[in-house]
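Quick one: structure for this chain?
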Amino acid sequence: MNTFERIYEVVRKIPKGHVATYGQIASYAGNPRMSRVVGYALHSNPDPEGIPCFRVVNRFGELSSAFVFGGINRQEELLTADGIEVVDGKVDLSVYQWNGK
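Got it. Here's what it folds into:
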């Protein structure tokens, strides 16, 4: 399994109503130092319906300013529909961060 496939496998596991950080995905995919690679993988997501990349935020809980699948407000719309509160482009990680289980 290549690196992108490992990343997609982890992202598929993020449950509805939760988010994960790029670094968290990198760690769960086997290399905590590849946060940027996670960004590249999500940017070229081959299956946006099956790989919920909108549930991935930065280490501060901030949404992507360059969300590729539907424009700048689309990530917020998808997270809100998922039951996640977004305030000023940010998610409260203490409330919504996935614990990996």
